Amino acid sequence: MAASEENSTLFPIFVLTLMALPLVPYTIVNLFGAFKKKAAKINCQCSVCVRSGKYHKSIFKRISNFSTYSNLTLVLLWVVMAVLVYYIKHISTEFQIFEPFNILGLEHGASDSEIKKAYRRLSIQYHPDKNPDPEAHSYFVEYISKAYQALTDPISRENFEKYGHPDGRQGLQMGIALPQFLLNIDGASEGILLLGIVGVCIILPLTISVIYLSRSSKYTGNYVMHSTLAAYYHLMKPSLAPSKIMDVFIKASEFMDIPVRRTDEEPLQRIFVLVRSELNLDLKNIRQEQAKFWKQHPALVKTELLLQAQLTRETAALSPTLQRDFRRVLELAPRLLEELMKMAIIPRPPVGHGWLRPAIGVVELTQSVVQAVPLSARKAAGGSSEGYAPFLQLPHFSEAVVKKIARKKVRTFQDFRDMTPDEREDLLTQVAGFSNSESHDVEMVLKMMPSVTIDITCETEGEEGIQEGDIVTMHAWVTLNRGNGLIRALPHCPYFPFDKEENFWLLLADSFSNDVWLSQKVSFMDEATAIIAVSKTIQESKEGSGASAREINVAVKEAIEKVKNGSRLVMGKFQAPADGNYNLSSFCLCDSWIGCDAKSNIKLKVMKRSRAGTRSGLTADETPAMEDGIEEDEEEEEDDYESEYSEDEEDTKETKSKGAVANGSAHNKGSGSTSDESGSEAD
User: 60 vs 56, 75, 630, CA distance in Å?
Assistant: First the structure.
């Protein structure tokens, strides 16, 4: 009975221990991450971002941000732990060490007469004949009688002195820390125990499985509907112009689920008038084009108009209900655009390459949505192939300001960035009419903008030169620098209502054939993960080449230092195509900033196979091969704006004649979409 009560008493302690083991470290990690995030100012501090209220946390916003399911669950678990601690502290059962003198209320060394006298006194108080209380009876039998026996019986006293118990050596007692009603199995407890076992072991797992399967059958791991991916895959075309990416993007099933109300018709009509010039309508047949536009599915019309309202910054015309739908569209946009990008670069049969042109178009659309810049602003103008779009992402800039500074021979965004701070301040204050504070905002944002360099090599590991059929390994170090010294930062995007992390897409592609040979997403937000990945990669690479342990440690330390200084290692493998010379390009495209992309040219020389051995047969997505070209019948109509990466035949010939880099290697020191640097050729 005592052992059973002891086990029942230990049950809350057992539950408290099980809860504390994962809960305490999880809470510490969350608090540390929250304080670290609060301490590091990685968002833009310009006056435009401050006025937008995007990063201002009011008391209601703080409560709403805190009131997530994970945080509320965390608080609830801590409340349960506090209740358990209070219960354990005030629990009625106390565990006593068997000490006969203390039980009888005597001091050590008491005489036999004092022992008998104390026993009689306690017998009157606890003996069953005198006290009918069951607890008094239990205490008399378990403690008083054994204490008296231990002090008066010679054998019991000898056992007590040797083993600490009048019954002699006590065996090891083991129990289960479960409630008392589960240990006393009777008719009622059996039913409760059975229900508990069925609920925990059968019903709960089945419920979780049904919920998971029903959700996983509808969504991918990135919380995008499978139907959306299927639509994006089939609508993606190799010659899809950047201006046509919007038509594919709005076909997402998530947008189709946004309700279309009768009350939305009038405000949508007002938005249509404001953004009509951005809808690629044929002005010669404007009435027919407008009628055709409104005959589309209402959800498609609504989604495109809301996106165009974001691009043109015409959100003031939105009604309160449309504002909620507008925020929902923008909340989904980064996730869906990332999946659309994957559909553009996914290896496709028969050659196993992705498509460069639509991939660049997706990135350009992502940049425009984040920065709220119209696609028409990307049309080539003057001496800039990228238009005036990069200027519009700067605070206080407009098309009129761009025209003013263009008169001072600042025709491209790179020209503007290359100026000294004093020259920019003089230009903005004297020519554009900016105040000192507005000029300071511009300088602050320019220091936030990333400058990317690429150091890339392609080689066959353990062999000299590249022969057809070889497995070629690409090593690329992508390095990011900012004027303010930050590596991890959120972009300046006051018109985008959600936090947006910078992401970069590294593409190894053949611009002439529109093929993407290799692609990988690069992030500078998580340094710890990047250090772990680069350490493992460098170690495996050095071990495969037979390097010593010391050489491996040195290489790993150098790589970690590079990561801490703002570099990320990107590796990939592809199978060398047929022999010949290939003019490739490496693109590092930022999805958050306009005009901060990097491009370098690589000449890959593939020789005829002379080494012994056979080619390794790899799958299409692991071994892209050279594509002969895009068929003429797949060409679509001319772009409404020319992509900053578009190249005609003359550009391609010029690239070939400039002199390529060493076989399979290039180092790009500049950044920006206008970079045309290439290295020197080496045999």
Answer: 11, 18, 55
Sheet holding 567-575, edge to edge: 567-575, 471-481, 451-459, 665-668
- Single out the residue of 651, 329, 341, 346 nearest to residue 497, CA to CA: 329
Q: What single letter denotes the amino acid at residue 86?
A: Y
Across 425-470, where does the E strand assignment appear?
A: 451-459
Distances (CA, A) of 592 to 105, 144, 295: 81, 81, 33
Spell out the residues 6+ positions from residue 382 whose beta carbon is closer than 8 angstroms to its own.
406, 411
C-alpha span between 645 and 677 (Å, rounded): 14
| Integer CA distances (angstroms), 516 to 351, 467, 596, 624, in order | 11, 20, 20, 8
564 alpha carbon, distance to own chain's centre: 20
By C-alpha distance, which of 296, 458, 314, 450 is closest to 374? 314
Are 393 and 442 contacting, i.e. CB atoms less than 8 angstroms apart?
no
User: Does residue 176 register a pLDDT over 60?
Assistant: no
| DSSP conformation class of 216 | H
Compute the average pLDDT of residues 167-177.
Answer: 61
What is d(CA 570, CA 680) in angstroms, rounded to the nearest whole number? Answer: 23
Taking CA atoms, 444 is separated from 45, 49, 499, 663, in Å, by 8, 11, 19, 40
Residue 165 exposed, middle or buried by CB count within 10 Å (0-12, 13-18, 19+): middle
User: pTM of this prediction?
Assistant: 0.72
With tokens 């350009």, the residue in question is: 364
Q: How confident is the model at residue 622 (pLDDT cuts 50, 70, 90)?
A: very low
Count other C-beta atoms under 10 Å from residue 423's C-beta: 13
Which is nearest to 337 in space by CA: 234, 224, 497? 224
pLDDT of residue 658: 39
C-alpha to C-alpha distance for 663 and 466, rounded to whole angstroms: 9
Helix (H) or strand (E) holding 357: helix 356-371
pLDDT at 643: 59
pLDDT at position 495:
93
Q: Which of 69-78, 230-239, 316-325 has the lowest mean pLDDT?
A: 69-78
**Is the Cβ–Cβ distance between 466 and 458 less than 8 Å?**
yes
Degrees (nearest 5) of the Cα angle 20, 22, 26? 110
